[in-house]
Amino acid sequence: MTGSKKGILLVNLGTPDSPSVPDVRKYLDEFLMDERVIDINVVSRALLIKGIIVPFRGPKSAKLYREIWSPETGSPLLYYSIRQAELLQQRLGDDYYVELAMRYQSPSIAAALDRLKAAGVESIRVIPLFPQYASASTGSVIQKVMELVKSWPTIPNISFVNSFHDNELMIKTFAENARKHQPETYDHILFSFHGLPQRQLQKCDHSGNYCLKRENCCESLNPTNKFCYSAQSYDTARRIAAELGINRENYTVCFQSRLGKDPWVQPYTSEVLKTLAADGKKRLLVLCPAFVADCLETVYEVSVEYHEEFKTLGGAKVQLVESLNDNPMWIEALAEMAG
Question: Does residue 270 share a domain with residue 239?
Fold first, then answer.
């Protein structure tokens, strides 16, 4: 088709429209009611989310969002996601039509897809902005896109980036950002990833006899655990460490942001902080390679909460390495994935 463009849809997780309690509650409700995020039966999920978590967690989360919210740019996650889309459009040029969406709240996937349809694109390449595959993130985006386009009279060729945990340029960007902080001057390096319930890892083990049933089952990537979020996280950390020349004994992979009483992926970042403080470590450098843009989990949870927690335990400093944000090398990585 002469003059047709290729559509690119970038999708990040989402952010409240404002740090007000009503907007935060609205965001949490949509996010946590996703059947892939809290994968229990719908009645129990509704009672838990609408009856307990959203009413009580909303005000607390709103307070945290106010800490990171900029009067000029708003949410850092939305700001950097917009920047990524704009810079990718510039990099790809007029043969492409780049749209940004959030899985939850604004801008919506439905509105972005409608704009791509109206533009008459010949294909759509969906890039969920989550380096490691998880049913609750990438899987949810894929499901939502498929639900929305299934009723279109004409469906263009649609493809998805399943994961990019081993993307070379992404690895180099994280390493480049870490070098700015002189990793050799720190006592230990943490690779802190977002957490998931253990049951969600087990669901990705189609063999039924590997996940959490073998010692160090996530330490190396293999055909059995290739879709495992934890295994992909370890692989990302290993690649960044190799790029930085960091030996295995000098870094730890851990997981943050637990919710509820069920066991989540371990080790927990908070527990690792206790162990390192007890071992006499004073200065920690922390990378968060599950996030392509700085957000509440990096700017506040790591830089503020974990820093203060570590100091209370006897440590001196927790230093966050900035995320990929609008680094030109990361934009080049997106361009490669766009095809």
Answer: yes
Q: Is residue 265 included in any domain, yes or no?
A: yes
CB 242 within 8 A of CB 178: no
Instruction: State how many domains the chain has.
Output: 2
Residue 91 CB-half CA count within 13 A: 22
CA distance 61 to 67: 10
**155, 194: one domain:** no
| Neighbour tally for 159: CB within 10 Å | 11
Residue type, 69: W
Domain CATH number, residue 120? 3.40.50.1400
Q: Are 237 and 252 in contact (CB under 8 A)?
A: no
* DSSP assigned state of 169: H
The pLDDT tens digits of the residues spanning 38-84 come to 999 999 999 999 999 999 999 999 999 999 999 999 999 999 999 99
Asked if the model's pLDDT at residue 1 lies above 50, the reply is no
End-to-end Cα distance, the chain: 18
pTM of the entire predicted model: 0.95
Instruction: Please indicate, yes or no, if residue 243 is contained in any of the structural domains.
Output: yes
186-212 confidence digits (pLDDT tens): 999 999 999 999 999 988 888 888 888
Are 118 and 206 contained in the same domain? Answer: no
Amino acid (one-letter) located at 262 = D
Rounded average pLDDT over 252-263:
87
Asked if residue 1 belongs to a domain, the reply is: no
Structural domain including 117 reads: 6-164+328-338
Query: What tokens appear for 276 in the block?
Result: 């390192």
Classify burial at 206, counting beta carbons within 10 Å of its beta carbon; exposed 0-12, middle 13-18, buried 19 or more. exposed
36 and 158 both lie in a single domain: yes
